[in-house]
Every structure is written in structure tokens, then in C-alpha cells.
Amino acid sequence: MTDFLFNGPDTSRITIALAHGAGAPMDSEFMQVFAEALGNLDIRVARFEFPYMAKRREDGRRRPPDRTPALLDVWRNVAAELDPDGLVVAGKSMGGRIASMIADEVGAAGLICVGYPFHPLGKPDKLRTEHLETLMTPALILQGERDPFGRHEEVGGYALSKSIAVEFLPDGDHDLKPRKASGRTRAANWAEAVDRMAEFVANV
After folding, report:
1. Which has the closest alpha carbon to 36: 16, 21, 13?
2. Please, what is the end-to-end C-alpha distance for the chain in angstroms?
């Protein structure tokens, strides 16, 4: 059984299963802020951790992410344990990428990726988009305009499924944080991202 951390009401029509990124756990500031904000909007959020991160919590040792097949199996188990009829699979960076790889398979109602890693850092020619070209699940990708894993000017040239909406947060980096000179704040970008996620969920 998966150890979930829940926010929001049990009676919510939709549950967002929210996976962490490669380097931070399910109770990082990013994950906590998003889960609590969505929960306050009466959306149920279920956070969980991949095995390598759960082990880090036990002994404090940093580990690389589990191999992709193991990450996919965790997502399959999560989807099986939650109600698939009202399930939106979602994640930050790596967590969202793996979610996008199983969304069609598990029959998710929707997919949300925050800071999708379209390519490895510094390797824009090694795209991670092949499965996104045929994705059937309604999807929302929230991307910082300056995200080094997929900048605004890069993403516009990708061949993505018509089921995917990509929306950009002003001057945001991979964590959606803008530069001070932009006049924006991280809090503002995060709040806007939460609003867009809630709007997407309302239309699922």
C-alpha cells in the first residue's frame, strides 16, 4: 500500500495524485504550498514518494531516482489505489514526466505537469516528447518561460498532441521563480499556477 499524504476534502469529485520531482520529497515547500492551496479550493490532493526518496527519509542518504520502469510501476500502483474515474495524475518535473507516460494507460481523467523536463539540462536535442505526440489524456503543462529544461521559445516548436495545453508563467525558471527585475514574485507565479490547475480540474 502507498503511504499517501492527503489535503482537501474526501468528498471532492476529483483527486489529484501529486508526485515530487527528482531532488525534493513530498513535503518540500513547493509540494506543501501547492497541495495546501489546492486543498483549500476543495480539491483532494494525494501526495506520495518514490522508493528512493522514501529510503532517503529513513536514513538521510541522497540517492539518484529509481530507474524508469520502477517509477512507472509506482505510478500504476498509485492509480490503482485511487478512484480512476476522478483521478488527475500530476507531478513536479520528473514526477510529472513519469505521470505523462502512464496517463493513457491507467485511464486518468487528466494530467498536470509543473515544470516538464522536455530535455536534459544543456541537451536540447535529446527530447523527451515522443509519447507526448500521441497523448490522448487531457493535459496541462505549466512551464516557466525561462525553464532550462524547456524554454518558451523551444517548446513552441515541439510537435505535441492536441490534448495538451502548455501555459507559461512569466519569467519563471524550473520552479516557476522569476527574476526580481521582472517585477514578479515566486508567490505570484505559484498562486497563478494553482489557479490554472484548479480551472483545469473544474473542466475535467
Report:
1. 16
2. 27
Check: CB of residue 135 under 8 Å from CB of residue 97.
Answer: no
Would you say 98 and 72 are in contact if contact means Cβ atoms under 8 Å apart?
yes
Residue bearing cell 518561460: 145
DSSP code of residue 132: G
Domains by residue range for the chain, with CATH: 5-202 (3.40.50.1820)
Please report where in the chains the cell 503543462 appears, as a residue.
141
CB 85 within 8 A of CB 44: no
Per-residue pLDDT tens over the stretch 131-146: 999 999 999 999 999 9
Note the pTM of the prediction, 2 decimals: 0.97
Tell how many helices (H) and how many strands (E) occur in the chain: 6, 7
**CA–CA gap between residue 21 and residue 78 (Å, rounded):** 16
How far apart, in whole angstroms, are the C-alpha atoms of residue 169 and residue 149? 14
pLDDT digits (tens, 9 = 90+) for 18-29: 999 999 999 999
User: Which are the contacts of 29, defined by CB distance < 8 A and separation ≥ 6?
Assistant: none
Cell for 140?
496541462
Nearest to 140 by CA among 160, 167, 115: 167
Alpha-carbon Rg for the chain in angstroms: 16
CB atoms within 10 A of CB 87: 24
